[in-house]
Amino acid sequence: MKVPLSVVDFLRRAEQVYGQRVALVDEPDQPAPPWPDLTYAQVAERARAQAAGLDALGVPQGARVAMVSHNAARLFTSFFGVSGSGRILVPVNFRLVAEEVKYIIEHSGAEVLLVDPELDDALSGVTARHRFVIGKESDDELYRFGVEPRPWAPDEDATATINYTSGTTARPKGVQLTHRNLWINATTFGWQMGVNDRDVYLHTLPQFHCNGWGMVYAVTGMGGRHVILRKVDGAEILRRVEEHGVTMLCGAPAVVNMILDAAATWNGPIPGRDRVRIVVAGAPPPTRTIERVETELGWEFAQIYGLTETSPVLTMNRRRQEYDSLSSADRAGRLGAAGAPAIGVEIRVDSSGEILARGNVIMNGYWNQPDETAKAIVDGWFHTGDGGTIGDNHVVSISDRKKDVIISGGENVSSIEVEDAIFAHNEVAEVAVIGVPDEKWGELVLALVVKTPGSSLTEDDLIAYTKTKLAGYKCPKRIEFREALARTATGKLQKFKLREEFWTGRERKVN
Ligand code: AMP
Fold it and tell me: How far is the CA of 312 from the centre of ligand 1 (A)?
């Protein structure tokens, strides 16, 4: 027998098995009226009401529904209400500026757009056939309680979400993740992290970022509790861990640093000692940070590696039995690598040092960009654009990046996209954007600029100009003006040479 895998399975099980449990605790401090604590039966009811509401609007199966939202119970429920009724959810990065969001809405052809109230003004020029501000307006107009939604015959190969990600092109690409991709990622990730019905999961990770790495599904399927966090802040994370008995959270190394900083001035014992496990990815965390998680917080540290294109989990590095007898420092050293392939994932390194992957978590392709898909998936292997090695016990280490991408605070920044934005300024003759190592954010965006003759452009002017075009985290934090930029004989920028002076003496060329 073959029954199609779909995200419906996770919420259906939670509703049947754990229906009366508190499933979802919304963020209390948000511009929309927060939802009350909801049981799994109530979450399922709201997901059905949302599906019935989309039916009433005439939004067909296969249509795209975009949400630009901070973490919220309403976004959480849409992972089931939208995808679970055969539509495609497009969770959009809430840090993007209007021009960037507009591109995504148009490119994805979204029929419905839901906008966070805090972003409504800034995104007033961005619209779709149906546009709702998230909160009272969307509650009143989108949800049809007591109406059975139109049935959807699940298709595991149908696209469930399209997640836009900045990569090697000037515009972000829409990664199509199927129900099958999401199902396999959630179950393998959940299993290997030991997700269970006692888990209380704190949403420190943006839900738009690869669907919160799939934890929205994994924790739901096991009947764990979701606690929503709207804005990431170290002390607030510790407070929520204490208040809700949190057992698990995920984040980029920058989030770990924020928690460690807050812990240094925390009054009393650190909450969650010997209980919390924190899963980190996005960039290779420094060994010292890993050790401090164990010694200063008393939390378990685990690392994963992957990409939006891979749902995301490709490899996992979690404390194994053999590490028990090691010192904290040595154990941290072992946990500093990306980890061994997750079940069902095959990894190899090609002759150029690029990491290639195969498995059921790898995307269906980029939305409406077959040429880009063909470049990414070649002969059945997905090209990650990351450089690395495979060591003992098949542990993968990421040491370099083959693609022109900067990762700052766990979010991808396409160098080309930033170069395009800067180059649009009429006093810029040449520009190269590179990532340079930074203590707090891992990498920082640095622009090397050659001005047009006679220009009096300043660093501040140019940063301010870029901010009108790109999300803040993509804008250069520093600009250095140069007379010329290193180029090859054919005129191509030599990024590796430009990067060299900032990265000398480092073992890894990514941070
Ligand atoms: P994204 O698609 O935004 O999730 O970004 C994926 C990229 O983040 C990968 O291609 C890597 O360059 C980087 N990345 C993710 N996890 C790790 C990790 N554990 N170590 C090093 N780099 C990572």
Answer: 9
For residues 196 and 305, give the distance between their C-alpha atoms in angstroms, rounded to a whole number. Answer: 22
pLDDT tens-digit readout, 177-214: 999 999 999 999 999 999 999 999 999 999 999 999 99
pLDDT tens by residue, 64-97 = 999 999 999 999 999 999 999 999 999 999 999 9
pLDDT tens digits along 117-130: 999 999 999 999 99
**Does residue 171 sit in helix, strand or coil?**
coil
Is 417's C-beta closer than 6 angstroms to any atom of ligand 1?
Answer: no
Nearest ligand 1 atom, CA 401: 12
H helices of 265-307, where?
287-292
User: Which residue has a Cα nearest atom 15 of ligand 1?
Assistant: 282
Looking at the domain assignment, is residue 393 inside a domain?
no
The residue nearest atom 22 of ligand 1, judged by CA position, is 283
Distance between terminal CA atoms of the chain?
47
d(CA 405, CA 411): 10
- Count of beta carbons in the 10 Å neighbourhood of residue 482: 15
The answer to whether residue 319 sits within a structural domain is no
* Parallel, antiparallel or unpaired: strands 365-366 and 130-133: unpaired
Radius of gyration of the chain (CA): 23
Has residue 490 got a pLDDT over 80?
Answer: no
Higher pLDDT, 215 or 440: 215
Long-range CB contact pairs, 270-275, < 8 A, 24+:
270/238, 270/296, 270/297, 270/298, 271/238, 271/239, 271/241, 271/242, 271/246, 272/241, 272/242, 272/246, 272/247, 272/297, 272/298, 272/299, 273/297, 273/298, 273/299, 274/298, 275/245, 275/247, 275/299
| 284-315 tens-digit pLDDT | 888 999 999 999 999 999 999 999 999 999 99
Residue 422 covered by a domain: yes
- Residue 283 domain flag: no
Tell me how crowded residue 324 is: count the other CB atoms within 10 A of its CB: 8
Strand-pair partners of 412: 407
- Residue 476: which CATH number? 3.30.300.30
Domain that holds residue 494: 405-503
Question: What is the number of structural domains in the chain?
Answer: 1
